[in-house]
């Protein structure tokens, strides 16, 4: 026999042996036997679309008991539920798009604050060659005849102390000229303004807010909104700004 014929005969015999081992001749046993090769389903999207819903609905109608068909009200309720869910998903997408547009619009409006000074809820401000003076607001619960102001460096060391009149009460303006107790200009850096005064006969620390220079604006995210970048201080949400002053 020729080699080609031998090869064909061997292949045919192997195929017959495979078919014989894959079947037993018993239809019931062949039906419950495990497949020779395991098939791994491909990953698919778990979201149900409108086509999936109508496919399930058609399957439900085809499998229902003809003597107990699905009630019309129940079917309408199912379709209404799907429409409601689909509408909510579309609404969420629209809200996300709206937030993106509002964030961009807010950043565009905030760009007008570049070069201005804003009042922030922090007692720390930046002193540099561009701005030696540090201004702020002292919040008092009542009229205080004399408020003691302490200026500290970033290490907590006392740089200078002075007093301001708080007899008017409310928000009291405070300004430091950037000079230490010897009248010498301080080094560039961040400094804190601390204030205290007698309230109901007891000495108490008072809340202080300082002005900072806006150098730029960042877009931020939908949750944070526009971010104002302040010289030497860092970033702050535009919603946290207390007031805007002239540069």
Explained architecture:
By secondary structure, this protein is α+β, with helices and mostly antiparallel strands. The protein has four helices and eleven strands, in the order ααααβββββββββββ. The chain has helices at 3-22, 27-32, 50-63, 72-110, and strands spanning 117-120, 124-127, 134-140, 144-152, 158-166, 170-176, 189-199, 202-221, 225-230, 234-237, 243-245. Strands 1, 2, 3, 4, 5, 6, 7, 8, 9, 10 and 11 form an eleven-stranded antiparallel sheet that branches. Mean pLDDT is 77; it is low at 2-11 and 13-21.
How would you sum up this structure in a few lines?
The chain has 247 residues and is of the alpha+beta class. The protein is built from four helices and eleven strands; from the N terminus they run ααααβββββββββββ.
List the helices and strands and how they pair.
Layout: H1 3-22, H2 27-32, H3 50-63, H4 72-110, E1 117-120, E2 124-127, E3 134-140, E4 144-152, E5 158-166, E6 170-176, E7 189-199, E8 202-221, E9 225-230, E10 234-237, E11 243-245
Antiparallel strand pairs: 1-8, 1-11, 2-7, 3-6, 3-8, 4-5, 4-7, 7-8, 8-9, 9-10
